[in-house]
Write a structure and sequence with these properties.
2 copies of one chain form a homodimer. By secondary structure, the first copy, chain A, is α/β, with parallel strands linked by helices. Helix content of chain A is 43%, strand content 22%. Chain A is built from 10 helices and 15 strands. In chain A, α3 packs across α4, α5 packs across α6 and α6 packs parallel to α7. The longest helix of chain A is centred in the middle third of the chain and has 18 residues. The N and C termini of chain A lie far apart (57 Å). Chains A and B meet through α2, α6, α7, β6 and β7 of A and α2, α6, α7, β6 and β7 of B. β7 of chain A pairs antiparallel with β6 of chain B. Chain A binds a DNA duplex through α1 and α4.
Amino acid sequence: MAKTKYKEKGRFKKTERRRQILLELKLRPHVRISELATRFGVSTETVRRDFDALSDEGLVARAHGGASAPAQGHYPTLDERESARIEERERIGVRAAELVGEGETVMIDSGSTTIQMARALAYLGTPCTAITNSIPVAMTLGHGSAQVLLCPGEYLAAESAVVGTETLEFLVRFNVDRCFIGSSGFSEEGPSESVRGFAAVKRSMLHRATHRHLLIDSAKFGRKGLAHVGDLGDLSSIVVDKRPTDGLMRALEAASVETVVAE
Amino acid sequence: MAKTKYKEKGRFKKTERRRQILLELKLRPHVRISELATRFGVSTETVRRDFDALSDEGLVARAHGGASAPAQGHYPTLDERESARIEERERIGVRAAELVGEGETVMIDSGSTTIQMARALAYLGTPCTAITNSIPVAMTLGHGSAQVLLCPGEYLAAESAVVGTETLEFLVRFNVDRCFIGSSGFSEEGPSESVRGFAAVKRSMLHRATHRHLLIDSAKFGRKGLAHVGDLGDLSSIVVDKRPTDGLMRALEAASVETVVAE
DNA sequence: ACTCAGACGTGGGCTATGCAACAAAATAAT
DNA sequence: ATTATTTTGTTGCATAGCCCACGTCTGAGT
C-alpha cells in the first residue's frame, strides 16, 4: 500500500524524466545514456535505471549505450522461435514478391508476412502500383520504385494499419491485378482472422483482384480465427513455407487453389 | 570512371550484407555491431564501416554500439541549429495542443511542427478525434487517447504523408472544430507552401474547419513558398514562437487574425 | 521526531566500442 | 599475368558503457 502511494504521488523527478525520454524518442530514433544524463543533470546510472524500467514496460528498446524507439508495427518478443519464424516469413515474402509483374496494380494487406513481402518487393524494385491499408507496407514500398496508395480509415496503433468503413469504401473504387493477404488462421474452411475489422478488409481485397494470393505460415495451418475471411474457392493461390498436410492439401486441390511453396 | 564500374557490378558480399542490415532494421528497432559481425562472420570494423556508409545515406541512424532504424517521418540532420529550432517548434506545438478541447474534432496537417503538436497532444491525453494526412502524426496520436482517421492518398516517402485527389476528396466529407496547418512560408499575403500537392491539402483543411490555426516558426516570416495556400483572412489565429515584425503584425491585425505567442 | 523504503550518486573492476593506421586479401582493369 | 583499387582484417589504445555494491538523501508513514 505504501508502495502504491509513492507511485501515485510519484517523484516528479523520476516520472518527468521518463516522460521526457519517451517524448524524445518520438523525435529521434535513438537516445544515448550519456547525453540524457548530462541534460537531466543526473548520473548515468539513473538514466540507465530509467531505460531498464521503460524497457521492461516495452516502451523503449534497450541498446548498448542508449535506447531506441520501439519498432513501429508490431513485434512481439524476438526470442529464438520468433526469429526462426521470421526467416520463414521472409521466404514467403520473397516468393510472393516475385509474383508481381512490372506495371501491375496490387493490393497488399496488413500483417507481418505482408510487410516481409513489401520488403522483398522494394528490393526487387518492380515498378508497380500498390494499394494498402498497412503503414509499414506503405513506408517500405514508398521509398522504392512503387507508387503507393494508402487507404483511409481509423488508425489502429497495435497493428499499424487502418480499418473501418472508410477503408472498405475506398477499396471498392479499385480493381487490381493481384491482392496479397495474410490471415491469422487457415483451415479447410478458408482463411480466418482474429481481429474482426481486418476480416472485412481482406474480404474486400479478395473481391477486387483478379489473382488472389494468401500468404500463410505453416504454423497457422488448421488454426481457426474468430472471423471467417473467405472460402478456399476465393483464393487463386497460397504461398507457404511448407506443403500443407494431406487433409488441407486435398481440400486445396478440390478448390483448385495453387500451392506455391517458398524455397 | 573506373570507380563507377566497380560500383555498377558491385561486390556481392558488401551489398548483400548492407541489404541484410536494412532488412533487419525493418524488423527490429536496433541492431548491434557485435551481433551482426558474428552473424556475417566478418570483423566488427567491417560492420562499422557498413553502418557509417548507410548512415551517410540516411538509411540508418548510428548509435553507440549499433544502429537504429531511421525515424519515421523525416528528420533532417540534428545539428546545432536544427536542435534549437526544434525547441521552438516544441513550444509552438505545446501551445497549439492546448487549444484542443475535449471531444473536439480536429484536422492536422503534415510537417515537423505539426508532429510536435501531435506529441504534445498525445502527452496531454485530450480525448478527441483527429483527421490527418501525416503518418507520423497518426502514429504519435494513435497510441494515446485520440481517435485517428487517416486520409487516403498517394504516399510521399520524403514527407511521410499522403497527398493527391483522394486526399482532397476525403477531406471534403468532414467538418471539424479546428484545423492545424503548417507552411513553409508566411508573409502578408498569407501562408505558402513549397511542395505543390500539400498546398491543396492545407487549403482544403482550412475550408472544413471552424477555427483555423497556422503553426509557424518565426524563421519563416516573410518567406514566400511556391504555392499560395490562402489569405490571412482565412486564418483564425497563428501560433508562433516570436511576435511578428511590424509590417506583418499590422497586416494580421487588419485581417483580425489572433496571434498566439508560445511561452 | 523516528523509521524505513525508494531514489540517486559514487567508485571500482570489467567489457565493449570507437578510432586510426597499416597489412592482407580479393577483384577489376590492363 | 600484373597492376591498381577496393574491401576487409588486425592491432593497439582511448573512451564509453555495464554491473555491482554500498552510502546518502529524501519523503512518506508512524
